[in-house]
Amino acid sequence: MARETTDFRGIVIYRRDYRERDLLVKMLTDRIGPAMFYIRDGKKRGFRMASDLLPFTHGTYIGSLADDGLSFINTASETHQYQQIAGDLSKNAYASYILSLVDHAFTDNRPLGGWFDQVAAALELINHGRDEQVVTNVLETQLLAVFGVAPTWQHCVVCGQSDGPLDFSEQYGGMLCSRHWYLDPHRFHLDRRTVYYLQQFAGLNFQRVNNIKINPQTKRRLQLTLDTIYDDQVGLHLKSKRFIQQMNRLEQKMGNLGMND
Ligand SMILES: [Zn+2]
After folding, report:
1. Which of 52, 173, 239, 261 has the fewest CB atoms lying closer than 10 Å?
2. Which domains does the chain carry?
3. What single DSSP character describes residue 57?
């Protein structure tokens, strides 16, 4: 197995203790996608790379990348923590979910094309105060293709019509125009605004987004739509996702009781 010492960009996905004093750190890398790093003495007090490997840290590292098994980091050249994400419960929850989703979407130790930049841009936007749910929904929409679900968002899957109302059908793997709604009694009954945003999300490049503002009702519909597609067609049940759902339910309850400020 060839190993070459190289520099790479990485984002810490998670870390776990290994043996007495070592650490395993899972990172998303720009060169070989998700990869597990073995960090000798990583738990020792005063370990020199301690702050470079904290959760929600990203930066440039130098090490040897394996095409199979564990990789190694020799040194970190420049790292930063997403401070706002690390210090905020909701941002933290969505960023954890994004990283976990990406970890499941891509094969370890394999290049992932432009996805590293897309994920880094998403985390950067959340860290700069953009709506974390919306940013996450954009990535969820786009990652569907990686999970092997590639819905047709832009036009009716039967006749190709793109103007006039469209609605989503899981059975047909995409949008149906009103003339073809009769084909699927279980179509989602989406309103035009939700359809519009799903279409936008599918092709959005984060690096060119300045601000996305969506009203709370549409946000709930978008989340429900994506949750349904993920539950039914991807079949992924992530702990970080459950946590977000619990958090949102609690927030709604508090809202109903007038406890939100
Ligand atoms: Zn049609």
Report:
1. 261
2. 5-81 (2.40.50.140), 132-256 (1.20.1440)
3. E
Q: How big is the chain by its Cα radius of gyration, in Å?
A: 20
Q: 89-109 as b/e, with b when 16 or more CB fall inside 10 Å?
A: eebbbbbbbbbbbbbebbebb
Q: Give the Å distance between the CA of 202 and the centre of ligand 1.
A: 20
User: Cα of 187 to ligand 1 centre, how many Å?
Assistant: 13
Q: Are the CB atoms for 65 and 32 separated by under 8 Å?
A: yes
Decide: 108 and 37 in contact? Cβ < 8 Å: no
DSSP β-bridge partners for residue 57: 81
Per-residue pLDDT of the chain (261 residues; tens, 9 = 90+): 556 799 999 999 999 999 999 999 999 999 999 999 999 999 999 999 999 999 999 999 999 999 999 999 999 999 999 999 999 999 999 999 999 999 999 999 999 999 999 999 999 999 999 999 999 999 999 999 999 999 999 999 999 999 999 999 999 999 999 999 999 999 999 999 999 999 999 998 887 776 778 999 999 999 999 999 999 999 988 999 999 999 988 888 887 777 655
Please provide residue 139's backbone torsions phi and psi, each rounded to the nearest 5 degrees.
-65, -40
> What distance in angstroms lies between residue 191's CA and the mean position of ligand 1's atoms?
17
Residue with token string 């959340």 = 126
**Ligand 1 centre from 204 Cα, in Å?**
25
How far does the chain reach from its first CA to its final CA, in angstroms?
57
Q: Which of 16, 103, 105, 8 is nearest to 55 (CA)?
A: 16
